[in-house]
Amino acid sequence: MAANTGKLTAVAIKNAKAGDKPLRLFDGGGLYLEVMPTGSRYWRMKYRHDGKEKRLAFGVFPEVALAVARQKRDEARAVLRDGIDPSTKRQTERRLSKLSNATVFEAIAQEWLQKQRQKLAPVTYGKAEWLLGMASSEVGRRPISEISAPEMLAVLRKIEATGRHETAYRVKQKASQVFRYAIATGRAERDPTVDLRGALSPVVSKPRAALTSPNDVAGLLRALYGYEGQPTTAAALKLGPLLFARPGNLRAMEWAELDLDAAEWRIPAGKMKMREEHVVPLAPQAISILQELHQLTGRNRYVFPSIRTPDRSMSENTVNAALRRLGYDKDTMTGHGFRALASTRLNELGWAPDVIERQLAHAERNKVRAVYNRAQYMAERKKMMTAWADYLDQLRTTTGKVVAFKRQAGA
Length: 411
What we know:
By secondary structure, the protein is α+β, with helices and mostly antiparallel strands. It folds into 3 domains: 90 residues, Integrase, DNA-binding domain (Double Stranded RNA Binding Domain, 2-Layer Sandwich), CATH 3.30.160.390; 92 residues, Tyrosine recombinase, N-terminal domain (DNA polymerase, domain 1, Orthogonal Bundle); 184 residues, Orthogonal Bundle (hpI Integrase, Chain A), CATH 1.10.443.10. It is built from 16 helices and 7 strands. The strands form 2 sheets. A 4-stranded antiparallel β-sheet has the order 1-2-3-4, covered by helices on one side. The protein has a 3-stranded antiparallel β-sheet with strand order 5-6-7. The longest helix is centred in the middle third of the chain and has 20 residues.
């Protein structure tokens, strides 16, 4: 090991004045401090390997103290005595470190997520990122090829312990997708989550809260039209059952997406769960509500701007909070429940299931059928949305027992 010549001291280094050219202050054993004209001080080491003069950088003073720089020099000289170039050794270590980082669960999960970004709606992407984050917080720095089934089970049971059984299942599903991606890219040989079948507590499916009987819907509609809160919230409550769009799409509705003359709301593909543009035909009742609302928010980007800033849409909790104020708890009715309400009633009214499902923007469950069935049913959907709005008006304004009507043949 090189002797410590002690040529430099911290005081001497601090007092060294910068000149017009770099100044080198040598300490011995090849170590020197290079004082730049800007005043910056860099630790370097000069050495020879295979007959060539080379240099190593050890950092900046005072972040790297004199004693640390000397230690780095001594370590480099020890490597040289073994006939190894310390610069080459450092580069190799960096490459191995980078390769190692690229094979840990968290890195591969992020890589997989980036490839899904173009396929998923922002909300769906955010949920996937959140779910994988729960797994990464436990096994994120583990090489993905070394993660075992018991390790994953421990991660999932920790989530279960908080009572979030469905979340545990979803984390398992997302982690499985990451493992399969790692297998496909040659960084893992198997998916350990496959061995966890039956290991988690069963999830009891609970349908989304929604009112579906005609009399209950009639009472709900009258309550919605009697809401006395913020005008934008009142409009969102009225449009909820009329349009039965996903709550996230409704609150993020932009004036640029609306063509009131054509009676259409075109939701861009980037906002949709299935990444396909979706058209919502607007019945006269919906147009009337939007025209009235335009007087209040028409200068903004969003139809339903946040009360805090017009640059954002209203909060995702706004509609649900309004329903609570009207007396509907989370087990009775939610903003998403307008979709179940419409689906149930429209099916019972005799509308074609394919037309209803297309208007709900649901994916075709039969993958083979999905390839061939790309019909938009736009003419039928326009008729249905107008008839639906008229039906809701009848429910809301009819007193006494509500009598449901069927769609007319050939309508």
